[in-house]
Amino acid sequence: MKHLEELRRLQEIHAPEQLKERTLAAIEQGKEVIDMKQLRRKTRRRIATAVTGVAACFIVAVNASPAFALGLADIPALGALARIVCVRSDIYETADSTVTVSVPEVQGEQTDRVNQLIDEQVKAYEAKAAADLAEYKAAFLATGGTEEEFAAKDIQVKVDYDVKYQSDAVVSFVLTGSQDWNANTVERHYYNLRLTDGSEITLKDLLGENWVEEANTQIKHQMDVHDGASEMKYFTAEEGGFQTVDENTKFYLNEQGQPVVVFEKFEVAPGAMGEPEFTLDLTR
Q1: Do the beta carbons of residue 125 and residue 104 sit within 8 Å?
Q2: In the chain, which ranges are E strands?
Q3: pLDDT in tens, 239-250
Q4: Quick one: 195 exposed, middle or buried, by C-beta within 10 A (0-12, 13-18, 19+)?
Q5: If you compute the radius of gyration of the chain from its CA atoms, what whole number of angstroms results?
Q6: By three-state DSSP, how is residue 140 classified?
Q7: How many angstroms separate the CA atoms of 54 and 52, rounded?
Q8: In angstroms, rounded to a whole number, what is the distance separating the alpha carbons of residues 127 and 150?
Q9: What is the dihedral of CA 58, 62, 65, 68, to 10 degrees?
Q10: What is the pLDDT of residue 40?
């Protein structure tokens, strides 16, 4: 009975005037707070994205004003940094993938040929990635997969570059294309250039007339040291391993300006060893 009496008393209580208005006002105020929080989160994301873009390359300023990029070269602290600028930075979606592309351009004398080659290589890789994915999708569907399952893979295609070394006279960078569904789709192009005339720097330029013998001696020595300390060995000559460097041997310049010879996966060692690198000493 006591509970019934309490219930009856509560039902007789009248709501204060303006309660409805105050409640609605409080709800609206709450919405404003939530909206502001969401806005701040979105703003933070936008700022983070903008900072990342600016840090990666001077894309906005370079596209807006080519003179800006050239002007940076006259500032001592930024001169070398502006030798390579990003002239294209895209993220776009295809039917089966998300493609992220950053295209560099070399600022220097007579570099048009190099920049045209970079542009052609980027476009060729984008086309190759599209063909690779079409073939992969066809095989996936033919073996019982569905469109929805393939879409869920969220395949990422990426073309990017990494500056290895730069000075007022020389620049070295690597252009890389990759597809995250298959490690064998990785392609790398190595550029070692003089900014005075856009010409290519070779191992012969760095090591001298006996460059083949010198490079071979250092690489084989480093391989022997590794094999003596590790269970995983480089391929022997009989197994199709390293023979000699030549004009097509890939390399880049490290931060000290030393040439670093790079071999592709499986070229001179088991795949688990990745892409072996050998730094050559120029003081020998």
Answers
A1: no
A2: 84-93, 97-106, 155-166, 170-179, 182-194, 250-253, 259-262, 277-279
A3: 999 999 999 999
A4: buried
A5: 30
A6: helix
A7: 6
A8: 20
A9: 60
A10: 44
What's the pLDDT at 18? 55
Q: What angle do CA 179, 277, 251 make, to 5 degrees?
A: 80
Regions of the chain with pLDDT less than 50: 1-4, 6-7, 10-11, 13, 15, 19, 23, 27, 31, 33-56, 58-81
Contact 206, 218 (CB under 8 A): no
- pLDDT of the residue at 19: 47
What single-letter amino acid sits at 79? G
The residues pairing with 163 across neighbouring beta strands, listed in sequence order, are 173
Contact between residue 86 and residue 59 where contact means Cβ atoms under 8 Å apart: yes
Planar angle of CA 162, 165, 170, nearest 5 degrees: 120
Per-residue pLDDT at 247: 97
Q: In 3D, which of 183, 157, 166, 187 has the Cα closest to residue 175? A: 187
Dihedral class, residue 277 (left if φ above 0, else alpha if ψ from -120 to 50, else beta): beta
Q: Record the tokens describing residue 6, joined without a space.
A: 């309490």
CA distance 59 to 62: 5
- pTM here is 0.73
Contacts of 214 (CB under 8 A, 6+ apart): 207, 208, 280, 284
Cβ distance 183 to 189 under 8 Å? no
Q: Which of 205, 210, 272 is nearest to 244 (CA)?
A: 210
Alpha-carbon distance of 262 to 247, in angstroms, equals: 13
Contact yes or no for 241/263 (Cβ under 8 A): no
